[in-house]
């Protein structure tokens, strides 16, 4: 069952959250990963300096709209959702292969009740220094309705792609503005066919988590066109 947030209450919550994260967590970027993103991008990238040091990229009302959409009913046609998630699965597999073959990243899956890193800086430092990362596998949680949630499956691979080409490449944290900045970079790696599904996974769930303070139930959906940055 999804959390239904009254419009006014959600805007107030998001206002407090965004005001607290105007200055995103910024630390050393991983140059090799950023060069790989530049080689893979399907369209022009935003300037990494703007993503790292610019003002808040996700407006308060926009964040509230994303959380309302993710917590509300789905209106996207089922066949379009299926098509988008098939594309996302295929493209995630290809991007993950690049992470492994080109950057040499090794992933160590953990099975504890908490995330293996206390913060994004630890994750990114691991990747820069040793080309390794730890990831709490999605296999421990309720399975995704469409993505393979087994250990090392599509959901785990998508998180690896996001961490490497988003957080580590840019050197950004886990606060809301940083998460949205990593999306603005990672979105260029997905085709228009897969991008709506990628937005659902990388923006919808994260924004709702920040708004509610609880992990939302994962869903397969497509955002309204005007939300898809």
Which features would summarize this protein structure in a list?
229 residues, mainly alpha, two-stranded parallel ribbon, 9 helices, 4% strand, globular, disordered N terminus
Can you describe what's shown?
The protein is mainly α and 229 residues long. It has nine helices and two strands. The chain has helices at 7-20, 31-40, 48-53, 60-71, 78-101, 120-130, 154-170, 176-186, 192-212; strands at residues 106-110, 132-136. Strands 1-2 form a two-stranded parallel sheet. Helix 1 (7-20) packs across helix 4, helix 5 packs across helix 7 and helix 7 (154-170) crosses helix 8. The longest helix has 24 residues, at 78-101. The model is unreliable at 1-18 (pLDDT under 50).
Distance between the termini: 27 Å
- Shape assignment: globular
The percentage of residues in β strands lies in: under 5%
Give me the number of helical elements. 9
Q: Strand-and-helix sequence, N→C?
A: HHHHHEHEHHH
* Major beta sheet summary: 2 strands, parallel
Number of strands: 2
Give the strand line-up of the largest sheet: 1-2
Mean pLDDT: 89
Helix coverage percent of residues?
A: 55-70%
Question: Oligomeric state of the chains?
Answer: single chain
pLDDT below 50 for ≥5 consecutive residues: which ranges?
Answer: 1-18
Question: How large is the radius of gyration?
Answer: 17 Å
